[in-house]
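Sanity check

After download, print the first record. It should look like this:
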Amino acid sequence: MNAAADKIGVSARRRLAAHRSSGTAKIEVKHSAPGPHGSLDAEVALVDRNALSIEFGHVHNRSGRWVNGLFIVTGAARDAAAR
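Expected structure tokens:
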């Protein structure tokens, strides 16, 4: 499980780097992360105060238009599952 999480982390970091020119967003991979019902085998997370908006999208603060999410972690996990 750790190897799979590490691969997803590498892919997610590559995806984030392609879109990030500033800011503090980063990808963290944790092994044996705490979960709501015990320990998770691993966790790959986009860490930023705007992580949900970056991942899934948001309404632009000036135009009011929808900005699509980048699906950084979602896409990395999907790519890993397809292999």
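If your output differs, re-run the checksum step. Summary of this record's structure: Helices lie at 2-17, 51-56, 72-82.
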